[in-house]
Amino acid sequence: MSKIWTGRISKSTDKAVEEFTSSISIDKKLYLYDITGTAAHVIGLNKIGILSDDELKKIIAGLEKVKKKIELKEVRDVDNYEDIHSLVENELAIAIGKTAEKIHTGRSRNDQAVLDEKLFLKDALAGIISKIIFLQKNLIELAGKKINLAMPAYTHLQKAQPVLLSHYLLSFFEKFKRDINKFYEVFELNDCLPLGAAACTGSGYRIDRKFLKETLKFKYSDSNSMDIVASRDSLLDFIYCCSLVMIHLSRFCEDFIIYSSSEFSYIDIDETFCTGSSIMPQKKNPDILELIRGKSSIIIGNLMQIMVLIKGLPTTYNRDLQEDKKILFNAYEETYNSIEIFSKLLKKIKFNPNVIENSLKEGFLEATDIADYLVKKGESFRKSHNIVGRIVKYCIENDIQLKDLTLKELNKYSPYFGKDFYEKIELKSCINSKDVDCGTNKKQVIAKIESAKSVIKDWENKLEELCSRIPDFEELVRYNTVLK
Ligand code: ARG
Q1: 317 CA distance to ligand 1 centroid (A)?
Q2: Which residue has the least CA distance to atom 10 on ligand 1?
Q3: Catalytic residue, candidates 223, 261, 277, 451
Q4: pLDDT digits over 158-175, tens only?
Q5: What is the CATH class of 367-424?
Q6: How many CB atoms lie within 10 A of CB 380?
Q7: Is 46 in the pocket of ligand 1 (CB under 6 A)?
Q8: Ranges of each domain in the chain
Q9: What pTM value is reported for the model?
Q10: Backbone angles phi, psi at 183, to 5 degrees
Q11: Which of 34, 453, 37, 445 is nearest to 213 (CA)?
């Protein structure tokens, strides 16, 4: 395969070195971004008089051919190319001849690689955001359907207090809400044109960066050539957000693994979403949940990888940076797939209301409400806490529940106990007494579900706006005046 850097190096590269330095097997995924970026670049070169109208038309037609050829898998010996940039340039030469030799005027692979990644990132961000929106919709739908089902809330994995299942589900809505907002922020922060930096000091041609910025639909332009080719902050931001989503998913999965165990049996996962054992015939395992939990460690690892890759590099470009793509693609694909499969699984979960509500009958989940009851009657909280603690101990010793206590027994502990005690410790009262706007009171939860629906609408509108900032090769070619 002919090199794009012959001249200084006249000996042909050692085969092992070629294989070792090649990144084509990874960065071929960037082909469309490389072609789109190249199209914008050559349109820009035409605008400043470096390429004639004829040359431009020829190059664009050639790029269209190269794109088709790649998509039809007709490029021969793909793996012999050094990287996607060499592939596109060489294939263009095959398609249109010598004019292809002009496309690299005023740019370097250093700014080109950053451009490709930034364009990829825009698509990746839109993809992941839309997947999280889908997950959030499923969560809200489920929360709406299960509004009357109560479950135990846990701390230290010990029964704590009763809570609405919907409130529990919404706790994850909040986590993913923060994640989505961060992803939008990552898009905004990194929506900057890198072209014009060339190798490191800036292009030697008066490249019209404003025009390129608009053509490639960037909102801003990066402003220091050395920073542009040296930095990968956009990838760090993105992978950090992927790690957060995965951490949140992992905790959700962990809950569901516990709830689906036969000891809990709060939920059943549909058989189509479970696997069996090769030896134990009775098994039905929640492997998807376990795999998401496992994959989260890989994404967190990707975050470490990209940080360590960059931390000690001398300014500006160093070949180490080529390794960034493997990390980026892995974080993106695994996160995307995990969100997708988890959303599907969520739809396949059956909640067992009887088992869940039965579990509320034991474990003294009303104890805190009893302490609150005494406080509302005039007792101090610390004293109430001590009284209820002793009552719980009495119940354990006599194998009875709090609701089984007679008023006479209760009054031995405090004169504040009255007839209204029994009504105040009912499940509904315990839940509805948490009437703060972050609490499990039913009206509060219903209000949260309603506001979540409008938040989802806002996200959808915002996503549409972001997508309008993603350039499209065909559109770019269609609207260019010279090319018409
Ligand atoms: N494949 C390379 C990368 O992704 C392209 C940049 C090569 N630049 C260079 N100066 N050798 O980083």
Answers
A1: 8
A2: 110
A3: 277
A4: 999 999 999 999 999 999
A5: mainly alpha
A6: 10
A7: no
A8: 15-105, 110-354, 367-424
A9: 0.95
A10: -60, -40
A11: 37
